[in-house]
Amino acid sequence: MTLKRLLQMQVAYAIAGIIYNLVSYASLSLHGVALAPTAPVSGALVMGAYYLCLLPGSMGYVILYRILMAIAVVVIGYGGVAKHVMNYFSGLQGYSSTLAWALAILINGVGLVLNIMGAAGLFRKKEE
Q1: Residue at 125 is within a domain
Q2: Domain membership of residue 57 as a residue range
Q3: Which of the four, 14, 30, 77, 97, has the lowest number of CB atoms within 10 Å?
Q4: 3-class state of residue 2 by DSSP
Q5: Residue 126 has what pLDDT?
Q6: What's the confidence (pLDDT) of residue 65?
Q7: Alpha-carbon gap, residue 122 to 92, rounded angstroms
């Protein structure tokens, strides 16, 4: 996979995360229940900051991009995957449904894999 394709997939992940948080905000505003215990505005801002971390990769600053992706692995790995998985054992309190819980893990799980690929340099810099 090329770096360009990896970045495109990471942008899609960021958009999916922002959409999840926007839907969560709408649900909170309309029904008083968010999709997940994560504050929707904070979640959307984190995803926006994550998007900014992709810019060095698109500008050719591969070392900086890989460092930022290593940080993203820790942040997304804990806050986006592990924390949601651990919430299963507390009875999914704070989630609007099991589907909302599973989607949070799915979206962030995909992002985590993409970030590991970026941090580890598992991409080609140019198309061949």
Answers
A1: no
A2: 3-117
A3: 30
A4: strand
A5: 83
A6: 98
A7: 35
Q: What is the pLDDT of residue 128?
A: 62
Tell me the helix, strand and coil percentages in the chain, rounded to 5. Answer: 75, 0, 20
Transcribe 77-119 into DSSP letters. IIIIIIHHHHHHTTTSTT-S-HHHHHHHHHHHHHHHHHHHHHH
Residue 127 lies in a domain: no
Query: Domain count of the chain?
Result: 1
Task: Give the C-alpha separation, 117 to 100, whole Å.
Answer: 26
**Does a structural domain hold residue 124?**
no
C-beta separation of 123 from 58 below 8 A: no
pLDDT digits (tens, 9 = 90+) for 53-72: 999 999 999 999 999 999 99
**How high is the pLDDT of residue 45?**
98
What do you get for the CA distance between the two ends of the chain, in Å?
Answer: 10
**Cα 82 to Cα 108: distance, rounded to the nearest angstrom:** 10
- Segments of the chain with pLDDT less than 70: 128
Assess if residue 122 is contained within a domain: no
Closest to 7 in 3D by CA, of 59, 49, 83, 71? 59
